Amino acid sequence: MSFIRRTSAMIIALMSVVSFTACSDEQAKNQDASPSAVEAAQPDAEQAITQRLTTLGLPVEAIHDSEVDGFKQVETPFGIFYVSSDGKHFIQGRIFEFDENGDMKDLLAARFAKLVDSQSENMIVFPAKNEKHVITVFTDITCGYCTKLHKEMKDYNDAGITVRYLAYPRQGYQGSVADKMAQIWCADDKQQAMEDAKSNRPINGSKPATAECKNIIKEQYLLGRKMGVNGTPAIVLPSGDLVPGYKPARELLSDLEK
């Protein structure tokens, strides 16, 4: 088993719990392993980190300062890692910080929240009239539990929960499902298109997906992979915490109000 496959499996084990209320992820057949460009003028520490991880088959997309002294927060297509400034040590999994009251804060969740919000302009949103909470859901139109969640949209909205959708076609960002989801994101009435797709109806007023819409599906899918999504629906709370699987509105509201 390759390093990347071992790493991916361990990330999933640490960052999510296998749920029987989620549709399992299928391995994408075609993956874009090309790293995003990292600024040419990097400090020596970032160059060392990039070289080390690239050698291990982990292309570096971005490097950030972290709350942990001596470590950088590094984004890769296979997850987010904390890597020592000299590139000799790295941590996979969650890192928590205690506040003065002894309460824990998940440092990685805060980063996830920012990554999710970076896609806010390309989400399909079902807003609550009296909004109290906002969740983001990675969804697949072929997933039974995603359909169940969508059919209960009124329950979520009535509970004050706004639902924002990101695309996560489990077969990968290339293929028939991804193309159909790109059609949804291209539709003039995206909400209606989502309703149609999840009701097994032809997409209302569907038109061919543009390259731009296909790229949106790709970006959102790769974001889900980076965050450790391995099934749908995957619910991201405002804190950035990832909840795998379907949850009814009343149960989810209880979690949000804790």
From TrEMBL:
Main location as per UniProt: periplasm
One protein family per Pfam: DsbC_N
Keywords, comma-separated and alphabetical: Disulfide bond, Isomerase, Periplasm, Redox-active center, Signal
InterPro entries associated with the record: DiS-bond_Isoase_DsbC/G, DiS-bond_isomerase_DsbC/G_N, DiS-bond_isomerase_DsbC/G_N_sf, Thiol:disulfide_interchange, Thioredoxin-like_fold, Thioredoxin-like_sf, Thioredoxin_CS
Family annotation (SUPFAM superfamilies): DsbC/DsbG N-terminal domain-like (SSF54423), Thioredoxin-like (SSF52833)
Record's subcellular location: Periplasm
PROSITE patterns: PROKAR_LIPOPROTEIN (PS51257), THIOREDOXIN_1 (PS00194)
Disulphide bond isomerase DsbC/G N-terminal domain residues: 40-104
Domain Thioredoxin-like fold: 128-253
MF terms in GO: isomerase activity
Record's signal peptide: 1-24
The organism's place on the tree of life at top rank: Bacteria
Family according to the record: Belongs to the thioredoxin family. DsbC subfamily.
Described function: Required for disulfide bond formation in some periplasmic proteins. Acts by transferring its disulfide bond to other proteins and is reduced in the process.
Protein name listed in UniProt: Thiol:disulfide interchange protein
Protein's organism: Aliivibrio fischeri (strain ATCC 700601 / ES114) (Vibrio fischeri)
Lineage: Bacteria, Pseudomonadati, Pseudomonadota, Gammaproteobacteria, Vibrionales
Gene name, Swiss-Prot/TrEMBL: dsbC
